Amino acid sequence: MPINLGELAQRFDCELIGDPGVHIETLGTLANAGSNALSFLASPAYKKQLPSTKAAAVVLRTDDASDAPCAALISNDPYACYARMAAVICPPTAYEPGVHASAAVASSADVANSAHIAANAVVEDNAFIGANTYVGPGAVVGPGCVVGDDCRILANVTLVRAVTTGDRCIFHSGSVIGADGFGNAMTSDGWLKVPQIGGVRIGSDVEIGSSTTVDCGAIDDTVIEDGVRLDNQIQIAHNVHIGEHTAMATGVAVAGSAHIGKRCMMAGMVGIAGHIEICDDVTVLGKAMVSKSIRQPGAYASMFPIEDARSWNRRVASFRRLDKLIGRVSELEKKNK
Amino acid sequence: MPINLGELAQRFDCELIGDPGVHIETLGTLANAGSNALSFLASPAYKKQLPSTKAAAVVLRTDDASDAPCAALISNDPYACYARMAAVICPPTAYEPGVHASAAVASSADVANSAHIAANAVVEDNAFIGANTYVGPGAVVGPGCVVGDDCRILANVTLVRAVTTGDRCIFHSGSVIGADGFGNAMTSDGWLKVPQIGGVRIGSDVEIGSSTTVDCGAIDDTVIEDGVRLDNQIQIAHNVHIGEHTAMATGVAVAGSAHIGKRCMMAGMVGIAGHIEICDDVTVLGKAMVSKSIRQPGAYASMFPIEDARSWNRRVASFRRLDKLIGRVSELEKKNK
Amino acid sequence: MPINLGELAQRFDCELIGDPGVHIETLGTLANAGSNALSFLASPAYKKQLPSTKAAAVVLRTDDASDAPCAALISNDPYACYARMAAVICPPTAYEPGVHASAAVASSADVANSAHIAANAVVEDNAFIGANTYVGPGAVVGPGCVVGDDCRILANVTLVRAVTTGDRCIFHSGSVIGADGFGNAMTSDGWLKVPQIGGVRIGSDVEIGSSTTVDCGAIDDTVIEDGVRLDNQIQIAHNVHIGEHTAMATGVAVAGSAHIGKRCMMAGMVGIAGHIEICDDVTVLGKAMVSKSIRQPGAYASMFPIEDARSWNRRVASFRRLDKLIGRVSELEKKNK
Fold it and tell me: How far apart are CA C76 and CA C145, in angstroms?
């Protein structure tokens, strides 16, 4: 939606340095923006691209304004400010209300008139779809699921059963919410399946990435609180509890009944053991393994960065000599007493 | 299905301490069970919740019975006993036989009369669907697949082609079985695809989690034996062989032609290299990397647990000084001879 | 497609030792091939299976020819040679042109007459499907996607939006291309979604595995160049750039804006941090973490292989004493000066 700089500055309460009449029609990176695009400068790494940008305007901090070769919108938090403006300039697609002829909606389902059910989507028995919610092509909303207002369930998402969501949630393609948890009892005849009868309770403003899986609870529900952000390829096992505004990057796996606090940040490929607690405001760095509860806010790690393969192999060999080395040092200490 | 305690005790051969006439209608955790619920106590970690439970009855070991504020069903293996009772109290959904009007079943496919093919499911050429098997909404059973009796292929599962299963298998949503393996030959013009013509042979009582992928064999089949349990987000490459009753937790990746024994347990995020053998009864702990064959039953590991990021960084720095440290100690030893 | 050895030898310019009239009808491994099958010997590990093979013919190197109990096709690169012959003997399924009655194709979409759109597939507004391209059952080609000629989009694949591909690309089941990147700005009210308006640009001859996810760019496009091969369960974040003929094994995760060169090989479960550069011809070994740019071609690693759990735990304990050990050695050195 085209908008001019004066309106943007006023609406988002920014100082504008430049012509308020300039029209903004799209978004652009500093390096590649066209003359009708809004860009932003948040990270110092991109500062060198500012002087040569072709953007119509750049959202940036006061200190950077003098280097802008174009209009500048001043903000203390340029990334968030840009995000808000971007949502006005390039709003999410709007969908016509209605159910596509090829969609299959159970007669016992309750779909808001303003909802959009796309081609070959399926809404099963006793499911509820809220106002303005979009159910994409091939998506399945299983029996008894309750989806709030203004949600987006993208193509080929599966809400298996007993999933309840708040409003404004987004489920990306291929995500699977509410499948059976991995509950097996060992017997002399092999594994015995333990019935998984809990559901998944999801707050409002939650976004869940592609191919991310969130299992239903074994008995009580799996819980994801308001504002949680999960990237792609994440696994949330049965009865996990994730506190408000916690974010997880790709490939994180959380084992059963782990309880994770608010405003935590898990970097990519972190593993979290079952039945542990992580307090609020914990950051875990990439590829680390959390095998015990964390009771102090702060940053945690357990990852070795790469080296060239030959030196790495030497290091691993040295590591295997460490036990003996400790003995050798003790021996020397005795001699030197 | 409601049942009273007397019937439960008799059917599963348990001692009952309490009123056999009490009706059980659902399941509950010790902490949250209602007065019509059956609960269980298996792990000592939950023992403290027993005295205050509101459950109608608890499955537990003799030693714990005196702390139960309600009826008790005595078992040496309370978790397995609970699982069996739970399957009676909350049986899996039963489906009416038939093919939904929106499903597409190829004329050459052979679908048992008692099978249920849900909305927008697809059964392709020459596929066979056994008695009482459920094919969920949006699921695809590809050409030449043979699915046994009493299986559950949940919503949006894909059996790509040439997948054969035994009876009572469960495939959770988003799992993909029988896609091409990753076979590429390097040439001077880049990678050349190697045709993948094998299938996937799956035994009975196998359960495969959401978004788990099992590739077809390059020439011979990929094989998963009876009773195997795979959690979500697992990758099984072409020509892997997994022995009976082996279980793998989330995020395990098994490379091509690995041969894994019976009753193995792989914890979350374990990696298993290609073309290796793992004998029966091996347990691999979380995040470990199996790069060589394992020929002795037992537990294996290679993971570092987290520490606070600052101490971890110091440790990594020390690790990099280890090579030199070994030299320094040798030097000291010379001096101290 | 049956073919005789003489034709194979001529077509692929191989020396044939044996009867050119022998008919080949299928493919087989050395161990299990039948008498109408072509097999190959590329890796020395399988050399011991050659003398007892029942294959009709084996593709192998000159040096191995004398051990073949059957016809031999001589090649310097038997694996690539076999791959080319295999594609003739077992060509990919051919599909009849046409749109299945249950597929939903938007009126604004442009589908080549020679394309095949399978049951319950969905092609959305303004999408373009090239000549001879196959869109499998349940697959969704989202608005504005442009798919080249001779591509295969398998069952339940999702091209979300704004995905452009070259020719001869293969997308395996469950892969999701073009979903929103993980763009979130922290605010005092929690995470704010940053609109993701870029697309995904994919070259020709690219193959993408099951459940692999490739996100659209935040503003500019995510780019995958010609000949790239991605295995299953891989995550490619927004604005990643992958150079020609790079291959990645299962479970690799690449964070946002990483730029990866040509002909790189990433083994399974490698993590690659955001905003870094990896030059051409880099190999990263399994489970390693690339947290900084790599500017020299070569092999890199950071993984510890398993040991039995008891010794591993001892090693971790020793590792934690390393800091102090360094101090103890310094102390000894002072005494021994």
Answer: 42
For residue B40, the SS3 value is strand
Contacts of C220-226 with C-beta under 8 Å, sequence gap 24+, read C220/A29, C220/A31, C220/A32, C222/C181, C222/C198, C224/C200, C225/C262, C226/B190, C226/C166
The per-residue DSSP string of B269-319 comes to T-EE-TT-EE-SSEEE-TT-EE-S-B-S-EEEE--PBPEEHHHHHHHHHHH
**Contacts of residue B32, Cβ cutoff 8 Å, sequence gap at least 6:** A219, A220
C1: confidence class by pLDDT, cuts 50, 70, 90 = confident
Neighbours of A, requiring at least 3 CB pairs below 8 Å, are B, C
Average pLDDT, chain B: 97
| Angle subtended at Cα B108 by Cα B106 and Cα B112, rounded to the nearest 5 degrees | 85
CB distance A219–B92 less than 8 Å? Answer: no
Which residue in chain A is spatially nearest to B308 when comparing CA positions?
A: A300
For residue B237, give the nearest of C250, C306, C320 by CB distance: C250
Measured between CB atoms, which of A86, A231, A307 is closest to C300? Answer: A307
Closest CB to B291 among C173, C305, C325: C305
Contacts B31 to A, Cβ<8 Å:
220
Q: What is the pLDDT of residue A1?
A: 82
- Give me the residue from C26, C83, C155 closest to B193, CB to CB: C83
Distance from CA of A92 to the nearest CA of B (A): 26
What is the second-level CATH architecture of the domain C98-300? 3 Solenoid (2.160)
Q: Which chains touch B (3 or more CB pairs under 8 A)?
A: A, C
Q: Answer yes or no: do C286 and B289 touch at CB < 8 A.
A: yes
* Contact at CB, C195 and A320, closer than 8 angstroms: no
Residue at token pair 């056999």: B20
C98-300 and C3-89 share a CATH fold: no
Q: How far is A144 from chain B (nearest CA, A)?
A: 13
Tell me phi and psi for residue C250, to 5 degrees. -55, 145
**B305 and A292 in contact by Cβ < 8 A?**
yes
Q: How far apart are the first and last CA of chain B?
A: 80
**CA A56 to CA A5: how far, in whole Å?**
9
Binary contact (C275, A45; C-beta < 8 A): yes
Q: What is the pLDDT of residues B71-118, one digit of tens each?
A: 999 999 999 999 999 999 999 999 999 999 999 999 999 999 999 999
User: What count of other Cβ atoms lies within 10 Å of the Cβ of residue B126?
Assistant: 14
CA-CA distance, B178 to A32, in Å (whole number)?
42
pLDDT of the residue at C170: 98
Q: Is C190 helix (H, G, I), strand (E, B) or coil?
A: strand
> Does domain A3-89 match CATH 3.90.1300.10?
no
d(Cα A195, Cα C329) in Å, to the nearest integer?
Answer: 58
Domain boundaries, chain A: 3-89, 98-300, 307-337
**In whole angstroms, what is the distance from residue B198 CA to residue B208 CA?**
20
Nearest Cα of chain B lies from the Cα of C95 at a distance, in angstroms, of: 12
What is the reported pTM? 0.97
| Residue B17 clears pLDDT 90, i.e. is over it | yes
Check B104 against C120: CB less than 8 A apart: yes
Minimal CA separation from A285 to chain C, in Å: 11
